[in-house]
Amino acid sequence: MTVTYQVQVLHVDRPNWLAELRQAVAVELSDLGVHKSLSVNVTEDLLPGDAPAVAVVLVGPTAKDSGVLASGVRRAREDGLVILPVVDDLATFHAQVPESLSQFNGFEWSGQEPERRLARVVLEQLDIEERDRRVFISHKRSDGLAAAEQLHDELTHVRFSPFIDRFGVPPGGDVQGRIADALERFAFLLLLETPEAHLSDWVFDEVDYALAHAMGLLILQWPGEPTPIPGSVGIPRLKLDPTDIQSNAHNYDVLTPDAVDRIIREVEAAHAHGIVRRRRMLLRSVQEAAEGRGATCTALKDWTLEISGPRGRAIVAVSPRLPESEDLHRLDDTRDRIDPYADAVLVHAARRLDEPRRRHLEWVKGERRLELLPENAIGGEW
What we know:
Layout: E1 3-11, H1 15-32, E2 38-43, E3 53-58, H2 67-78, E4 82-87, H3 93-96, E5 107-108, H4 114-125, E6 133-138, H5 141-156, E7 160-163, H6 165-168, H7 175-186, E8 188-193, H8 201-212, E9 216-221, E10 237-239, E11 245-247, E12 253-255, H9 257-292, E13 296-300, E14 304-309, E15 312-319, H10 325-338, E16 343-348, H11 355-365, E17 371-374, H12 378-381
Parallel strand pairs: 1-2, 1-3, 3-4, 4-5, 6-7, 6-8, 8-9, 9-10, 15-16, 16-17
Antiparallel strand pairs: 11-12, 13-14, 14-15
Helix pairs in contact: 1-4, 7-8
């Protein structure tokens, strides 16, 4: 079964942008490997039905005074859709958009491949890609800290939540314990492969964990073919040229602005693909186990399965990271809409749940019939 989503595009004079966005959404779905299991209709009219939808308003020179566009925006708001205005320059946003769009945050169609960046934002709004974008930056302090801090700052400006141990662990904190928890929470690792990175036991442990747990991984290789981290040979790398590196005021290696832009584009793509791959892996493991026991599985939106079999009916959701209260809330809502009496199971990718988190999630569950299941217990559940 194919799960259907919809993108309603409102415009009066941006047919080229519409065509490019439609193509970019198709390419992104194919790159994610989900083009056969879900469908995203990019249309100018809202199709009948209850498919999850988002409205994109492509603002052109005549948009501000267009009654047709204003009417379309009004209907989209009445339908409760998320509305995303797109302009060619955010600095003149209010001068370009109709009054009905002035309260919304806009997207700037500029720079390299704006259609791909917009496609990812749209898929995030549909919960196909992750809105909660987290990156664990692995580095050797002796020669990678300045660049790690630079990327930490730049990533925060494009809606990422990055982690490096200098900012993520308070003085006196258990560094190894906090880093282990962060790896579970973030599920995507950006490795700065500097000349001395291979000497760090912590960097090795972080990369080894990412590989062993099918986390998203992007390796940023410094110029000069530095010694690879053990176990990472053969993994594709984003290779830097000597011209991508410069010295800061303290004579530490940092990245040029052009290099930062290129790295962020690669991180955005790799993060989206890595998290989707992990979700697909979890769902496929559940489906194979359930069908092996004679059950039937139906794909639902929000990375959820409906399972019907000898043990009855169950709604199963997956979390590619440590489970959180929002995951349980979403699962409970989905179960209530479909069958309040069905079982509800959240399968998560975490290796362990520490006691404070376990107590918190038990408190969130309360009297609701919600089950938490680690991925290594899938085979025994169905």
